[in-house]
Amino acid sequence: MAEKKAKGKIIIDRDRCKGCLMCVDVCPNELIEADKALNKKGYMPARVTEEQKDKGCTGCTQCALVCPEVAIEVYRAK
Ligand code: SF4
Ligand code: SF4
Fold first, then answer.
1. Does residue 3 surpass a pLDDT of 60?
2. Alpha carbon of 37 to those of 7, 20, 61, 71: distances in Å?
3. What is the structure's pLDDT at 2?
4. CA distance readout (Å), 54 to 4, 29, 38, 50
5. pTM for the complete prediction?
6. Nearest-angstrom CA–CA distance, 59 and 76
7. Would you tell me which of 29, 35, 70, 77 could form a disulfide with 47, CB atoms 3.0–4.6 Å apart?
8. Distance from the CA of 22 to the center of ligand 1, in angstroms?
9. Distance between Cα 77 and ligand 1 center (Å)
10. Cβ neighbours around 54 below 10 Å, total
């Protein structure tokens, strides 16, 4: 089924995140932003922007590689 969707997708574990926002800086498509609501640790965690669906994550894994907390999982569509 040729569903129109992005090639990649990320999931951020918001309670594992410490809000360093390195992933925000590194994403070439600006698909990650700071959440205004604090997580359990009291940090403003990273979250995926609404545009991820439209603009599309390429699944490049740069965000996951830069994350010191290993809080980002990258999935690639076939
Ligand atoms: S790099 Fe990791 S710890 Fe830092 S803001 Fe992004 S998800 Fe959170
Ligand atoms: S995998 Fe690449 S394109 Fe997708 S959110 Fe992470 S840095 Fe951005």
1. no
2. 28, 15, 25, 17
3. 52
4. 10, 11, 26, 8
5. 0.89
6. 6
7. 35
8. 6
9. 23
10. 8
With 90 as the cut, is the pLDDT of residue 6 above it? no
Domain 8-76 sits in CATH at 3.30.70.20
Q: What is the pLDDT of residues 14-63, one digit of tens each?
A: 999 999 999 999 999 999 999 999 999 999 999 999 876 666 899 999 99
53 Cα: distance to centroid of ligand 1 (angstroms): 20
Closest atom of ligand 2 to CA, residue 61: 1
Task: Give me the pLDDT at residue 23, please.
Answer: 98
Q: Cβ < 6 Å from ligand 2: which residues?
A: 8, 10, 26-27, 29, 31-32, 57-63, 74
